[in-house]
Amino acid sequence: MKNVFALFLFLSFGARAADYAMGADLSFLKQAEDRGTVFKDNNEAKPGLEIFHNHGYNWIRLRLFHTPTQLPNSLDYTIAMAKAAKQLGFKFLLDYHYSDTWADPGKHFIPKAWEGMTHTQMVEALFAYTRDTTAKFREAGVLPDMVQIGNEITNGMLWPDARLPQNWDNFADFIKAGIGGVEAGKGNLARPRIMIHIDKGGSKAATKAFFDKLNTYQVNYDVIGQSYYPWWHGSLNDLRENLIFTAKEYQKDIIVVEAAYNWTPGNYRSKPGPFPESPEGQKEFWEEVNRAVQATPDGRGIGLFWWEPAVAGGRGGRGFFDQNGNALPVITVFDKFSRH
């Protein structure tokens, strides 16, 4: 009996390990290439998705805006990007912003289409929008493998209606409506895993305050997502301690779903950083974040995503490509985990 139990544990761990997300948010990649940006690996031009695939990346994260006017991340654009990624074997995390533009801890603008609605009307609109867009992905053959309901929602969403900490009841209504929309839109397929994403990778106290409160509403979610940018969110030890705490406290899988570091001086011009802002320092940062995630107790650390590594112009030096479009050393971090 002991041997059977040990075999069960081994097989369970093997299945989980196979799903470890070596991921990248590539929401701007298609736009960059459509505008003529050429990405290269060892000075050889290749499609951006292919470069990431060749270096072990197995998940893509794509954001979706409701009705964007300045940015490309519409439903049609995102479906096209998801199709290209799925053809290469990537799994797909969909990031609902529930806004026409960026939603983050400093701003959560209501989509123009929902302005003037009552709370009840907006809950119904969010449910219908999530249901209908999920169905569109399913009909296109690219139902997401995971969905996050909102982006960096520590301070709530759809302000002022569900701004936190004032409006937790309204906030919980929106989260449940989003999850219900995914359920309704998936058809007969398995439900994508549901992520709740906050921006407190280095703070046990803030993570505990948020999830303790959320869990009083009996929200049915699967994965805790964290953003971790060291200049905002603390040291690597802060991250490690929070991952350990979160795994033990909530018994949920955890993904560092946004992280990045500069390969050229940017965030640490006036104070020393944990790593040099250089190509090698950027690579070392990514190796250490991966090490911290993999060391999360009980196998609960199930992956990490770099935020926007493939954009025109290098995104302020945080991308994976130099000014000539050539891949930097950081692209190789997952080679040793994915090649055999």
Key structural traits:
single chain; 340 residues; alpha/beta; 8-stranded parallel barrel; two-stranded antiparallel sheet; 11 helices; globular; disordered N terminus
Write up this protein:
The chain is an alpha/beta fold and 340 residues long. It is built from eleven helices and twelve strands. It has helices at 2-18, 29-34, 48-54, 75-87, 119-139, 168-185, 204-215, 230-233, 236-250, 279-294, 335-338; strands at 21-25, 40-41, 44-45, 59-64, 91-96, 146-149, 156-157, 162-163, 193-198, 223-228, 253-259, 301-307. The strands form three sheets. It has an eight-stranded parallel beta barrel, surrounded by four helices. It has a two-stranded antiparallel sheet with strand order 2-3. Helix 5 runs parallel beside helix 6 (168-185), helix 7 packs parallel to helix 9 (236-250) and helix 9 packs parallel to helix 10.
Give a nutshell description of this structure:
It contains eleven helices and twelve strands. The chain is α/β, with parallel strands linked by helices and 340 residues long.
List the helices and strands and how they pair.
Layout: H1 2-18, E1 21-25, H2 29-34, E2 40-41, E3 44-45, H3 48-54, E4 59-64, H4 75-87, E5 91-96, H5 119-139, E6 146-149, E7 156-157, E8 162-163, H6 168-185, E9 193-198, H7 204-215, E10 223-228, H8 230-233, H9 236-250, E11 253-259, H10 279-294, E12 301-307, H11 335-338
Parallel strand pairs: 1-4, 1-12, 4-5, 5-6, 6-9, 9-10, 10-11, 11-12
Antiparallel strand pairs: 2-3, 7-8
Summed over residues and divided by their number, the pLDDT gives a mean of 94
Q: N- to C-terminal separation?
A: 33 Å
Which geometry do the CA atoms define?
globular
Residue share in helices?
Answer: 25-40%
Structural class computed from helices and strand pairing: alpha/beta
Characterize the largest beta sheet: strand count, sense, and whether it forms a barrel. Answer: 8 strands, parallel, barrel
The main sheet orders its strands as 1-4-5-6-9-10-11-12
Residues in β-strands, percent: 15-25%
**Low-confidence parts, pLDDT < 50 over ≥5 residues?**
1-17
Radius of gyration: 20 Å
Order of helices and strands: HEHEEHEHEHEEEHEHEHHEHEH
User: How many alpha or pi helices?
Assistant: 11
According to DSSP, the number of beta strands is: 12
